[in-house]
Structure formats: C-alpha cells, structure tokens
Write a structure and sequence with these properties.
This protein is an all-alpha fold. It folds into two domains: about 170 residues, no CATH class; about 280 residues, no CATH class. The chain is about 75% helix and about 0% strand. It is built from 19 helices and no strands. Helix 3 packs antiparallel against helix 4 and helix 9 packs across helix 16. The longest helix is centred in the middle third of the chain and has 34 residues. The protein starts with 5 loop residues before the first helix and ends in a 12-residue tail after the last helix.
C-alpha cells in the first residue's frame, strides 16, 4: 500500500485517524503500532516477522547496553547489536549482489538466494541502529516500553520511504505529545501538497521517462528530456513522500525533521547534499563520517573518509555497482570542491555555479537509473551526440509538446517560487480563502487520476 493510492487515502488513513483520536491517551501508541503493522503486513506479510525480530533484538540490546555501560563488555555488545540488524540487511538486500560479484571474479557458479527485498528495510534498519548507538553514547536512555520502541520503528508515515527519523528527535513525543486543530490543519495541508507533487508531477514525469525507454525513435534531444525528467521525477517522488510523512506526523502529534530544502537551487555539490535527503546525509555524518575521524585528520585520511561514506551512501540506495559508482561520483566531486576548485567556484557567477550543479546532478541520475554501466554509458553518449542518433525526431517533437507544460511547472516547483507566492498571500490575508479551495482541487484532481488508473510508480520501493 502506498500513500498515493485510493485504499490508503479513503480507507486506511481515515480509519487509522478515527481510531487513534478515539483511543485514550495511554493506548495511542498501541493503536499506532497495530495500524502501522497492518500497513506493513498489507504490502509485505512474510517479512513482517523480520521487522519484529529486529525491533525486539534492538529493544533488549538497548536495555542491556544501558545496564552494563561502564563495563568492558559494552563495546563488544554494541558491535554485536549493530552487526545483527546489518546482517539482516546484508542477506536480504546484498547477498545476491555479492554472490554475483564473486561468481564473476572467480568464475564460480554459486546459486543466487533470490530473496525478495523487504519493503523499507533500509529505512527501519537505520532507525533501529541509531537507537542502539544513541543509547550506547548516552544520548538517550533506553526505552523501557517495547510498544513505544516498536511504534517508533514501525510508524507507518515514515516506514517505507523515510525520512529517517532519529529516536532522539521523537523520544519525547513517544511519551507525551499534544494534538491540536492547528497541528492537524498544518498536517493535512502538508500531506495534500505532497500528494499533489507525487500524483500530478512525479507520476507524469515518470510516464515521460518510460516513453523514452520505449521509444522507437530516440534522439539527442529526447535523451536530454529523459535525463532532466528523471532528475525531476526522483526529486518530486521522494520529496512528496517526505511531505506526506511529515504531514501525517503532524496529524499524529509527531515532529519529523525536514528531508528536502530545494536542492536544485544549490550553487555547489556540497550545498546540494545539505539540501537533498537531509536525514540520510546527517545519519551517515553522525554514525559513519565523524566516527571515522571526519575532517579532523590528515588530508589523505579525510579523502578516504569521504570516499567510504559516499560508497556506502551509493550502495545504501541499491545493490549494484552502478549505485556504488553513483555514490563515489559525488564523493569525488565533494573532494574536488574541498581541495581543488572550491575557492574558484565560490568566485564564479551564480549562473555558472547553478549550471555546474544541475549538469553534474543530471548526469549522476542517468547513472543512478541505469541497470548496467553499458546502459548508462549509452544514455550519456546519446545525450552528447556520440550514439549515432539524430538531433531530433517526430517522436521527440510529439513528446516535447505533450510534456513541455509539466516540465516547466516542475522546474518552477523545484524552486521556492511558490513558497514565496504563499507568503505574499499570507501578507494580504488571502491564504484563508485560497488555500482550502486549492487543497480541495488538488485532492479531487489526484483522486480522478488514481481512479483513472494513471501511471503511479514508487521509485523508493527498491530501497
């Protein structure tokens, strides 16, 4: 079940909210746990037990680590407590990738496990790990109530696509949170706008991406349309789910941190990654980069730390060499900005800096979306006229005319333009009149699209 589906919008979410608000205060976390587990069971029943095992293991690990923190057994227990959830992740997400790599290197014929990827395992594993590590560091007391910890890990708004929520950011909310009409209204607003971004922008861009792959008349211009469309699609797809998750969190009284901050307005790759998938970037910073020594070390060691973090960032997104290369690609750019051309970049005109970021990111997502290096290289060659394709074809013209409006709309929606318009409307006291109408229109149009069975993929299911 995905957020942009009719069963979720008109059955699961209203039913959950109704039962949640009727339930007495002491039972609200239990209600959330039951409905969150049902949400996960709907999409992945056979792996729901795996998630419960991870939660229970981390619950007892946290309790024991807190109890023996001052002894010599604490660090070995932490290593074991981290290794077990990571082991689950490795088996289900990376086993076949590793087996295929070994088979290719030594010519073996080790059979693949062919295990299905549990939905959201990358997200809930990182959340469970952050809890255990934070208890070890003394940043938070161990949770004494299993239901509260389970509700944190399984909480359905952020279960399948994030943002990655740290236990320390919601620990107080798990124990005591307030519910007000104002919070609920803000949550509904954020959710509906996120739904609009997903259904009306990301899904439409996704159909253009699919059309490129299916085209019998590709061209240089169509290759660029594809690259730009996918770069925008993945942003609107993922940021829309973050918006919906944050909105539902507000409805339920939780405070989830922002996950995107208009990354395409960045003037460097360093800035881009401060604005893109913020929860993942800060997770790797706090739990991998800083423990490795961060930048408080030699220049060589700092470079190695960056490459390690970005190789892991890439492989977190998917079990494949293209994903790892995508991560290393950004790691190399960050190193170059830090040690080679960063100062020159700061002095360059803003337009040049923006162009550099957009160009680098668009190329990166061509690699990200490719299933093989050969496919990625062919796509890039086509973009630069080295693939023997014509500059433009009738098919290209047709698709450009069909998608020009959505591409332009997505371009502006990826900037703070509409946010600025909203602030102006607030200044003139027009928000109270326009916003309810706009939200109703978005919801009605999205519903019409979904009833029609329109293209509705979800890119982050594979993570």
């Amino acid at each position: 079940m995905v957020f942009s589906s009719l069963p979720f919008l008109y059955v699961f979410l209203p039913l959950t909210l109704a039962v949640y608000f009727i339930a007495p205060k002491k039972l609200k976390n239990t209600v959330l746990l039951i409905f969150s587990f049902a949400f996960y069971w709907w999409g992945e029943p056979k792996y729901a037990v795996l998630m419960l095992v991870t939660i229970t293991f981390c619950y007892f690990a946290g309790r024991i680590i807190e109890r023996i923190r001052e002894t010599r057994w604490t660090k070995p227990l932490l290593i074991f407590s981290v290794a077990v959830p990571l082991g689950f992740l490795a088996v289900f997400k990376y086993a076949d990738f590793l087996i295929s790599t070994v088979n290719g290197i030594i010519g073996a014929d080790i059979p693949l496990l062919k295990l299905a990827l549990p939905i959201g395992i990358s997200f809930y594993t990182f959340q469970a790990l952050s809890y255990v590590v934070d208890v070890y560091r003394g940043d938070t007391p161990a949770q004494k109530n299993w239901i509260n910890l389970a509700a944190y890990v399984v909480l359905f708004p952020q279960l399948i696509a994030g943002p990655i929520v740290r236990y320390t950011t919601v620990a107080e909310d798990l124990e005591e949170r307030t519910h007000t009409p104002e919070k609920a209204a803000k949550g509904i607003r954020r959710f509906v706008f996120g739904l609009g971004k997903k259904v009306l922008i990301a899904n439409v861009l996704g159909s253009l991406v699919a059309a490129y792959r299916e085209s019998a008349e590709p061209s240089v211009l169509f290759s660029w349309m594809y690259a730009v469309a996918f770069s925008l699609q993945i942003y609107f797809d993922f940021s829309a789910y973050s918006d919906m998750a944050i909105g539902m969190g507000k409805m339920l009284g939780f405070r989830f941190l922002e996950n995107f901050d208009y990354p395409y307005i960045s003037k460097s790759i360093t800035e881009f990654w401060r604005r893109w998938h913020i929860s993942l970037g800060t997770w790797f910073r706090d739990y991998v980069y800083i423990p490795l020594g961060g930048n408080r070390t030699t220049k060589l060691r700092h470079i190695i730390n960056i490459l390690i973090v970005w190789a892991l960032t890439g492989i977190w997104h998917g079990a494949g060499w293209t994903f790892m290369s995508w991560g290393v690609y950004f790691g190399v750019l960050l190193i170059l900005e830090k040690y080679v051309f960063g100062k020159a970049l700061e002095k360059a005109p803003k337009l040049i800096r923006h162009f550099y970021v957009i160009f680098a990111v668009v190329i990166s997502f061509v690699l990200f979306n490719a299933t093989t290096f050969t496919e990625a290289w062919n796509d890039i060659k086509n973009m630069f006229g080295m693939g023997g394709l014509p500059i433009i074809t009738d098919d290209t013209v047709y698709h450009f005319r069909s998608y020009a409006v959505i591409l332009i709309a997505a371009f502006f929606a990826a900037t703070p333009v509409f946010r600025s318009i909203g602030k102006k409307l607030e200044e003139y006291k027009l928000t109270a009149v326009i916003e309810p109408v706009l939200l109703a229109v978005i919801l009605i149009v999205c519903t019409a699209y979904l009833v029609d069975g329109s293209f509705n993929p979800f890119l982050y299911f594979r993570f």
